[in-house]
Amino acid sequence: MPRLIEPADPILSDDGIPYSPRYDDVYHSAAGGLEQARHVFLGGNGLPGNWAGREQFVIVETGFGQGLNFLATWQAWRRDPQRCRRLHFVSIEKHPFTREGLATLHASLGELLPLAGALQQQWPDPLPGLHRLSFDEGAVVLTLAFGEVEAMLPRLVAGADAFYLDGFSPSRNADMWSDMVFRGLARLARTDATLATYTAAGFVRRGLQTAGFVAEKAPGFGGKRDMTVARFAPAWKNRRYVPPDAAQWPDRHAIVIGAGLAGCAVTERLAARGWRVTLFDAHDGPARETSGHRAAAMHAHVSPDDSHLSRLSRAGNLHALRAWRALESSGHPVGWHGCGVLQIGEDEADIAAQCASLTALDFPHTFVRWMSAEEATEQHAAAVPRGGLWFAQGGWVAPPDICRAQLAQAGAAVDARFQTRVAALEHAGDQWRVLDDAGRVLAAAPVLVLANAHEAARLVPEQLFELRRVRGQLTDLDAGQVGAAAWPDCVVTGGGYLLPRDEHGSARFGSSYEPDDGPLVESAAVHAENLGRLAGLLPGRATALDGVDPATLRGYVGVRTVTHNRLPLIGRLPDTAQALAQSTALRGAHLRDLPRLPGLYAALAYGSRGLTWAALGAELIASQLEGEPLPLEADLADAIDPARLLLRTLRHGPAPGRPDGRPDQDQG
């Protein structure tokens, strides 16, 4: 069962200091929050000096509060001419303020108001999980982890250079100062990582020392004689988990194969980090296959147990919207239509499951709520037969517009090679080479990302991808067929989906989901099935189309690539041959134990959720390449790891049908 997020209230003590009635404690010293941040957390960690000249610097904080530590650190970074190139700030918060609450508390910040305003503008809804916010053109990255520290700290994948150990007094909030927390910090600590906290409690120093830190007292702040500073210097050499170091790439050049949603997103994210990208696609431009249709809807998935699919869907939706807003602010709008999405139940059992999800999750209404059929009809001209879930942040967009915006943002960093088919790959030295049909080298780079859907299996046949192709057909109605009667001004989904009218008055609905066992040509039978889907969504409008001959309808046909559990494959590819050769030793292995191929990554099998997962998947791959904190919790990154099918084979033996673990053709 998911842990619900209960926001904090912007309450002030009699002294005018932000106060928490939950913990009967104030958020910072009476001597001043910003001054405390500068003395205790920056000064105690030797900042800004310790980040001088670094390519990357990572700070992990327990207790974001109203964000004063982050704002003070961001300001110090801006003012420092020797600052690191990229600053990551990762902070855990169990009870985040709302955007309005932050605005109230930040009103008196004076010179920090511009930074506080930028933070408020991007501030997320109080939803569990990680939320990645980007500032100063991506040079400052704030990753917020909303949830209990005991749950979130083990799920972070990061290598920390400094820790801000904040939170309410140990006597008021013991969970923030437990041995489990100290061990969790040690798990993330890079060599010589520093730590600072305002408390001088002896059990805190002893707990840090047991976890591998050398801790000592230092002059305190605001009437406190002492505080605690520490450095990670464990007596032991072997660590069960080694946090990622900042990557060192002498040649920051990558090859990306595939210029659809997945590949263009990866290209843009790598270019943002200073990489040169050679982009290959067999077609005459970006978004020509599955990403090529003129309109696609996006909304989150919810379930009572907040499953991996639901959490990945939520994270992907929120990240995509932030990424598209960033593109727009850079002058490259994607044409997002945030009209909202209504997902109606298909039957009474489905409605019961939807209501159970709302009750169990208790998410803010700005994210999802119940909408009755009456409200849908009155407010959105959606004459649906029953109510459903309303996603106010959902909507639709043309995928090709996203791809074009991302390539425009990448600019001169990308060398796009369209109408170029990659026939084979080879690895020599520290370079991946892509070859044409004649065996000629088209390009070489230390990093290669496969973003070419089902075609990836042809280039790396040794991988246990278990990909399958699913055909989808959409049906279009022109303005005359739609008619003058009301049509929904939002997206409606259920046993299919339909989109609002476009600027020409035409509309689109569908979609089929069937095995790809024939040519990609439109089928009158599938158009007839889509009319049936429309009848389930808008019975009245479907009745008006009873006389339409399906053979006269036109639409769009494409192929989705999916895995066995419909979760994508995102991340570094395993060395399958080496792993199978060591199968006995690796039978009890975890994903982190599997050998990996150097510099080879996948962004594949997005299925029907390319809009949802492309931006987040690209950020994940870029973060893995750079040794940065991941934008996803560890269990979610594992759930989409391309090595997960290999791990299953190692643990349980080959899948039925083939001795090497690959399924027979009819089992794919």
Rough outline: globular
> Share of helix among residues?
25-40%
Number of strands: 31
β-strand percent reads 15-25%
Q: In total, how many domains does the architecture comprise?
A: 3
Mean pLDDT: 92
Region (tRNA (mnm(5)s(2)U34)-methyltransferase): 1-233
Cofactor: FAD
Keywords: Cytoplasm, FAD, Flavoprotein, Methyltransferase, Multifunctional enzyme, Oxidoreductase, S-adenosyl-L-methionine, Transferase, tRNA processing
Domain MnmC-like methyltransferase: 116-230
Notes on the structure:
- This protein has 668 residues and is an alpha/beta fold.
- It has three domains: 11-232, Vaccinia Virus protein VP39 (Rossmann fold, 3-Layer(aba) Sandwich), CATH 3.40.50.150; 253-288 and 401-467 and 564-667, FAD/NAD(P)-binding domain; 295-397 and 469-562, 2-Layer Sandwich (D-Amino Acid Oxidase, Chain A, domain 2).
- Helix 1 (33-44) crosses helix 2 (68-79).
- The longest helix has 22 residues, at 308-329.
- The two termini are 32 Å apart.
- The model is unreliable at 656-668 (pLDDT under 50).
